[in-house]
Amino acid sequence: MRKLPAVVLTIAVLGASSARAGYEEGAAAYSAKNYQEAVNQFQAFIEELKGMSAAEKPEYAGVYQMLGMSLAGLGKHKDAVEPFKTAIKLKGDDATLQLLLGRAYYDARDYRNAADVLSKINTAALTEKHRGMVATMLSVAYQESGQEGLALAQWEKAAKANPNDAATQYNYGAQALQAGYTDEAVAALAKASTLDAKDPAKHRAYAQALLRKGRETPDKAAKTATYGKAVTAGQQLVRLENTYDNLLLLGEAQLGAQQYDGAIATFNQANVKNSNDWLSHYYLGQALSVKGSYDQALAPLKVALAKPKADQRKIWSQIGFVHEKQKNFPEAKTAYTNAGDSRGLTRIQENEKIAQENSAIEEQNRKIQELEEEKKRLEKEMRALPGTNP
């Protein structure tokens, strides 16, 4: 969960009737971040209010507000809830107080109540900064309380309210990607990675969003172009954080962009980082296969096959594909059988049948050619006999 910055709010100056030493000392302690002393002073001041009439008490809503803020300063967010609620009762609906109450629920991880309070705030009465804060807190509150649909809508609102905040753009993009809104995710994560160019997490999320968009794009040229953008994002990511997983992500982007030599080099780098994982060997074999280097592709695929937790079916299927391309049909059938790949087996059987038919046709054509050549030879010999007409 994203940690929000401390709330700094303007507090109305209390009327002259409330200007007592206890309040002033409490306010001074709060300003000095001596929150426990502030709590003590405000609680003592509130004790003096108990004998007041209901008509007089509204003037003192600010005292409860200050008590709540002092308790929040101590990290006692649950305890801060009641003073803020009392302040709202005394003063009526006030956007600043509602924000403080919502923030108290939020920091106490009572997300259901936080969402209820924050969603009712008239944000028009707040500054732009605090409107963005409400939007962000409400997004998290919805998300954490299991209201994913409302969370995504609120993240979008937060992103619009905070166009230059990298964390908000990142959170919205991540939620949009998870919900299947790929274009929106790509746009938000592109902003996030630009605004915070040194954060690997934002470049990683952006590259992942581009990879998904590449897979979802039907047009071949647009697909390749999208994967090309993923390559750029992946390269930036690897420059920031040269890890095994990031190299795999870059290599996948290069495969999609048809940058096969680059992908092969990247997967070889990944193997250096972690030679015990099967994925880098498998992807290397896949890259070599797509490039058409079938003889070279088999070696890393067989290495992948022997690694712990390897996806045997996927690897055997790729091995079957390589043998099929080499027209090694018996080996391809064995591999597809090991993979449980019925479609591959069916295709091999059809290819074998076609190969046999082609072979039979070629044999027949060869025999016809031989007969034609024999006929020509005999005709030539006969013309060479004595007394034969030229």
Count of helical regions? 19
Helix/strand structural class: mainly alpha
The secondary-structure element order is HHHHHHHHHHHHHHHHHHH
- Write down the CATH topology of one domain: Serine Threonine Protein Phosphatase 5, Tetratricopeptide repeat
Low-confidence stretches: 1-19
What report would you give on this structure?
- The protein is rod-shaped.
- The protein is 74% helix and 0% strand.
- The longest helix has 42 residues, at 342-383.
- The model is unreliable at 1-19 (pLDDT under 50).
- Among the domains are: 1-142, Alpha Horseshoe (Serine Threonine Protein Phosphatase 5, Tetratricopeptide repeat), CATH 1.25.40; 163-238 and 247-269, Tetratricopeptide repeat domain (Serine Threonine Protein Phosphatase 5, Tetratricopeptide repeat), CATH 1.25.40.
- The chain has 390 residues and is mainly alpha-helical.
- Helix 5 runs antiparallel to helix 6 and helix 11 (200-216) packs parallel to helix 13 (244-256).
- It has helices at residues 21-31, 35-47, 61-73, 77-91, 95-107, 111-118, 128-144, 148-161, 166-179, 182-195, 200-216, 220-240, 244-256, 260-273, 278-291, 294-305, 312-325, 329-339, 342-383.
- It has 19 helices and no strands.
